[in-house]
Amino acid sequence: MKKILFLSVLAVLVFSSCQQGPVRYTQDSPEIDIVKQLISNYNNKTFDTSMYADTSKTFYNVSENPMSASEAMDYHKQTDANYSSRSFQNENSEYEMVVTDDGETWVNCWLGWKGTLAANNKEIDIPVHLTYQFVDGKIVREYGYWDPSEVVMELQKIEMEAKKAEEEMEPME
After folding, report:
1. Which residues, in sequence order, are bridge partners of residue 112?
2. At 11, is the pLDDT very low, low, confident or very high (cuts 50, 70, 90)?
3. How many Å apart are CA 160 and CA 137, to the nearest integer?
4. Quick check: 88 and 111 in contact, CB under 8 A?
5. Which domain holds residue 57?
6. Is residue 72 included in any domain, yes or no?
7. Which residues make Cβ contacts (< 8 Å) with residue 166, sequence separation at least 6?
8. Which residues form the signal peptide (predicted)?
9. Total domains present in the chain
10. How confident is the model at residue 164 (pLDDT cuts 50, 70, 90)?
11. What are the DSSP calls for 87-99, one per residue?
């Protein structure tokens, strides 16, 4: 009888030690699928905010003054004027979902972005990190980090060249 009791307790201990807790890290989740759809929408210039909570906040290279989801879509539409083409590249893209110690669900992604400036056909490649916080299947926070220096410098150069050409065209007094 003692052996049966001992084996029963041992079996319970072994069984309970094999039980896994909730998934805290994965590369396959519904939230990752939502982010991949969001990236696809960006590439297709489909400016859909249905993946965002009404109160979501988006931070692109800033820590204050977030944008709403619709303001973020307007931001993309406005910057599109600078490019003849632009998209996130599929190769070498990485996605992960983590659940923090505080129970927050985040999806991180590392992507390559490529754009061609409309004014001079210069191609620019930029590594981008995006991270999204989810609550009840909706994005409540979005953070985007990239180095815009090359784009800014090229746009300034284009502007200076246009201004110089304009000044050369003005009649002499």
Report:
1. 89, 127
2. low
3. 46
4. yes
5. 23-168
6. yes
7. none
8. 1-20
9. 1
10. confident
11. EEEEEEEEEEEEE
Residue 97, domain member (yes or no): yes
**Dihedral angle over CA of 26, 27, 32, 36, nearest 10:** 170
Q: Is residue 46 part of a domain?
A: yes
**How would you class 144 by CB atoms within 10 Å of its CB: exposed for 0-12, middle for 13-18, buried for 19 or more?**
middle
pLDDT tens column, 116-150: 999 999 999 999 999 999 999 999 999 999 999 99
DSSP strand E in the chain: where? 25-26, 52-60, 83-99, 105-117, 123-135, 138-145
> Could you tell me if residue 88 is inside a domain?
yes
CA–CA separation, 31 and 136 (whole Å)? 10
Give the CATH number of the domain where residue 97 resides: 3.10.450.50
